[in-house]
Design goal:
Blueprint lengths: L1 H13 L4 E3 L7 E5 L7 H10 L4 E5 L7 H8 L3 E6 L5 H10 L6 E5 L8 H20 L1
Parallel strand pairs: 2-3, 2-4, 4-5
Antiparallel strand pairs: 1-3
Helix pairs in contact: 2-5
């Protein structure tokens, strides 16, 4: 087991680093995504920006996760994991591997068989941010 633990720790240094895009220095909202959700992210960021929500993004490119992933998540007030599956597998991996409270991150889950759209992501993020704002006010 120690050999495997060492192998994973060494592997992180050799795996592709995540791609981080900082659109705003105010680190309020972050989107974490991977894989086929990549195509919809620029549209989602643009739509959210039009609605006054500045978003930074992180594209996961490998597992085990780079330390940059944990830093990105901890530096943002609200983080949403964008996935094209019902179960939120990557969010679960993030929570388990980085010891993050699942309640501290939102999930944007799309699983109707069609490609995810920027509109879907933007609407889901806006809805969850509205709930957070309502809970903070109430």
């Amino acid at each position: 087991m120690e050999r495997l633990e060492h192998k994973f720790a060494t592997g992180v240094k050799r795996l592709p680093a995540p791609e981080i895009t900082i659109n705003t220095k105010a680190k309020r909202v972050g989107l974490v995504y991977y894989g086929s959700t990549d195509e919809a992210i620029p549209e989602a960021v643009s739509l959210l920006c039009e609605q006054g929500v500045k978003v930074n993004t992180l594209r996961i490119r490998a597992f085990p996760f780079s330390p940059q992933v944990a830093s990105f998540i901890s530096e943002h007030d609200s983080v949403f994991v964008v996935e094209q599956n019902r179960d939120g597998q990557v969010k679960k991996l993030l929570c388990n591997e980085l010891t993050i409270d699942p309640a501290s991150m939102g999930a944007v889950l799309h699983y109707d068989g069609l490609a995810i759209t920027g509109q879907f992501i933007a609407e889901s993020v806006q809805a969850q941010l509205s709930v957070q704002t309502d809970q903070a006010a109430g």
